[in-house]
């Protein structure tokens, strides 16, 4: 039988887009055999036709007329990033009934509902494996592999830049600034590292993961975020003493409140016990741990960034999309039927490690412990280490408590003379 | 709109089947929201209606008439295991156009082509996530998440029983027999442990993984198998000295030969370097590492057995199947277009660690090294440790070589007086 040809428009020809174009050409025979259809790049929309490109890019396929390209495509691969013009182009494609494959986490985390609605109305498919954790197939994992289960929590290292920085601080004893400079030298961090180091990139991915895990619309603004700029070598040393390492984690959890179930989502530097499989995920690798009612604990691990690695995720979506076009079927529809409420940042719960500078006199521990007890916070461990004759460091580890209770206790403590200074407040994961 | 009802026949009501039935009842509302169809167990086929069952099993649904149940079902879940009557029933369902969801690795690894052909002829769907590695979604991983990539190798801990036994031997210094007895006490090993400890269970999973990874029909008889019965505490101590641990691994690899590409598949106890993420997979956990051309290295990790955990995998397939029934689409078809030749066991290649007892005299090392060189085997490391005045142990580590070259060198060596005894021959993974 003769196979149909599926026309693909590629929007953007950067590190990921150029690899997608290369693999579509080199592996076209494989894709045809797998999809039952020929996949063919009909054009590549770029801003500047004359910019330097890898030699495998066919310059005749470059165009600045994205609209014309989209209108003639069966599948539109959006890899330009950012909100506009990506949003307008993706909506144009979906409204025309074309399948969209995107790696744009910021767009999904800020305009996901609009995109999903457009897809539903026209019957178009929307794929986004590449938007979270590069080559790690965690979108498939949540949308399909766990479709028969009930997810309780998702915990992930989803930003390679900060993982690399924290890793280097721990390995070499570097300051945050030294580790950032090294990451920038090696190209692991951008000149303006804000999106990575302030946790915004991780927050967008956290929102996408939480949406899938809890069948609830979660946007980036729902995610409480804390980045890694303020992490010090002393924090890392304290983590090591506590038998752990510091990782920037995306936390998404189903929690029970007095009003029923809710979703807790936040990104924060977290003291991870070395017994946790996430503790040994180093360098630019990503890993996502999913706890589900029936499956128990699963982990997905792999390369979280890189042009060719992310291209693998894009192309898995392209093969699924082309197969559906050839044989029927569609991408899983948005599933938001649970519509759980999302807890405000102050209601985030977890275990915390707090470090204080305290004066070296009797009665300090008793007063501090008393204030925590009064705020309903249960203490798991207390350790005092002497720095000099007049000041000690007190490390306090809590059982599960809410961030607001912790903050209230801290507020009261700083009005006593039992605490000289709050050194750090950090979440913990066993 | 009113939803369709999808009728499900469950064949088998053991540890996995009973959990599937429970979750279908308890989570029915979730499944309806996710699939766009009600899923309803129409009956459960069992051998003995009167056997004791968990209290959530509705006895009115039990039947011994599997044929009637199958003929009336939209989805048939086969969880009886073994070849017959599973094969006959699965074929009956597929030929009638019903979707089959199975966890039966033995059936797939020995009659996979027959099942896939039947599915293709009638247009039926065949799902089998639960057949490999319990809750770990590695069938999805290979069939869908890596559909746009080119898999180079799959390396997996896919048998929890042997992983537990090897773990206990390493932790407590136990013999194989002691560790097996403990595993049997705890219910991790069966009274007749043959399928696990001789590597047959792992070989079936290896065949399934290799089929998916290389788009080639691979059956259990294609897989060279070595089990764990002969592993000694001395082997484990030698592994520790070499910076590793022993794991029973399923190896499936795309290899280049003079005639082109081929598939190498085998199951063998393997010395795994502690730097490899598989080294830290302990107890009854399973993990599968996939190396792909674009994605690089991915790892999937989770619980490889257990009724409720495996039920999660079954139910993900049920949700996919019911969604397709409600909205169109089908399971990915068998993809065997690459049809690569499969190497015979003697052509298995890898790095090896060999240990010999050698007499304590000069010239021994030179003679041994000379024989390996003559067989074209490149030596990576040689270490001699003295046991007493007259005998030493020589540990020899090779670079990549074929099993047949190793065997030929060993054969020649045992005809010299440079080797008293071959203690162990083991594969290595960095």
TrEMBL record, chains A, B:
- In which domain of life is the source organism classified? Bacteria
Keywords tagged on the record: Amino-acid biosynthesis, Methionine biosynthesis, NADP, Oxidoreductase, Sodium, Threonine biosynthesis
Q: Which GO terms describe its molecular function?
A: homoserine dehydrogenase activity; NADP binding
Tell me which residues bind NADPH.
105
- Which reaction is this enzyme known to catalyze? L-homoserine + NAD(+) = L-aspartate 4-semialdehyde + NADH + H(+); L-homoserine + NADP(+) = L-aspartate 4-semialdehyde + NADPH + H(+)
Q: Which residues are NADP(+)-binding?
A: 11-18
User: Hey, which pathway is this one from?
Assistant: Amino-acid biosynthesis; L-methionine biosynthesis via de novo pathway; L-homoserine from L-aspartate: step 3/3; Amino-acid biosynthesis; L-threonine biosynthesis; L-threonine from L-aspartate: step 3/5
What does the entry give for GO biological process? Answer: methionine biosynthetic process; threonine biosynthetic process
Pfam families found in the cross-reference section: ACT (PF01842), Homoserine_dh (PF00742), NAD_binding_3 (PF03447)
Q: Does the keyword NADP apply?
A: yes
Q: Where is the active site?
A: 205 (proton donor)
Q: Which residues form the signal peptide?
A: none
Tell whether Metal-binding is among the UniProt keywords: no
Identify the enzyme class.
oxidoreductase
- Essential cofactor(s): a metal cation
Identify the NCBIfam families for this entry: PRK06349.1
Q: What does this protein do?
A: Catalyzes the conversion of L-aspartate-beta-semialdehyde (L-Asa) to L-homoserine (L-Hse), the third step in the biosynthesis of threonine and methionine from aspartate.
Name of the featured protein: Homoserine dehydrogenase
Species of the source: Nanchangia anserum
């Amino acid at each position: 039988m003769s196979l149909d040809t599926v026309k693909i428009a590629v929007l953007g020809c950067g590190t990921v887009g150029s690899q997608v174009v290369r693999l579509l050409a080199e592996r076209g025979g494989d894709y045809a055999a797998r999809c039952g259809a020929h996949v063919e790049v009909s054009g590549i929309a770029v801003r500047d036709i004359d910019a330097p490109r890898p030699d495998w890019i066919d310059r005749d396929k470059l165009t600045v007329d994205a609209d014309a390209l989209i209108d003639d495509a069966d599948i539109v691969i959006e890899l330009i990033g950012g909100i506009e013009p990506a949003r307008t182009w993706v909506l144009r494609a979906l409204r025309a009934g074309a399948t969209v494959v995107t790696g744009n986490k910021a767009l999904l985390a800020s305009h996901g509902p609009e995109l999903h609605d457009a897809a539903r109305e026209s019957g178009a498919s929307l794929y986004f494996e590449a938007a979270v954790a590069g080559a790690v197939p965690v979108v498939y994992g949540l949308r399909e592999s766990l479709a028969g289960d009930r997810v309780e929590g998702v915990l992930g290292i989803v930003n390679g830049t900060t993982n690399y920085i924290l890793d280097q601080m721990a390995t070499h004893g570097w300051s945050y600034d030294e580790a950032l400079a090294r990451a920038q030298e090696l190209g692991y961090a951008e000149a303006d590292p804000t999106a990575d180091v302030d946790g915004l990139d991780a927050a967008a991915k956290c929102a996408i993961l939480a949406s899938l895990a809890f069948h609830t619309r979660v946007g980036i603004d729902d995610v409480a975020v804390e980045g890694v700029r303020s992490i010090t070598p002393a924090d890392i040393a304290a983590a090591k003493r506590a038998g752990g390492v510091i990782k920037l984690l995306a936390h998404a959890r189903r929690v029970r409140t007095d009003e029923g179930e809710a979703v807790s989502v936040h990104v924060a530097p977290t003291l991870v016990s070395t017994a946790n499989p996430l503790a040994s995920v180093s360098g630019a690798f990503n890993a996502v741990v999913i706890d589900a009612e029936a499956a128990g604990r699963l982990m997905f691990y792999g390369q979280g960034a890189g042009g060719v690695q992310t291209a693998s995720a894009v192309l898995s979506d392209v093969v699924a999309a082309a197969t559906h076009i050839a044989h029927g079927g569609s991408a899983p529809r948005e599933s938001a039927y649970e519509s759980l409420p999302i807890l405000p940042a102050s209601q985030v719960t977890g275990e915390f490690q707090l470090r204080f500078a305290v004066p070296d006199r009797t009665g300090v521990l008793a007063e501090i412990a008393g204030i925590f007890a009064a705020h309903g916070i249960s203490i798991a461990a207390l350790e005092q280490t002497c720095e000099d004759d007049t000041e000690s460091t007190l490390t306090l580890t809590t059982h599960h408590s809410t961030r607001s209770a912790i903050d209230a206790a801290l507020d009261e403590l700083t009005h006593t003379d039992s605490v000289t200074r709050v050194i750090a407040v950090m979440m913990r994961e066993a």
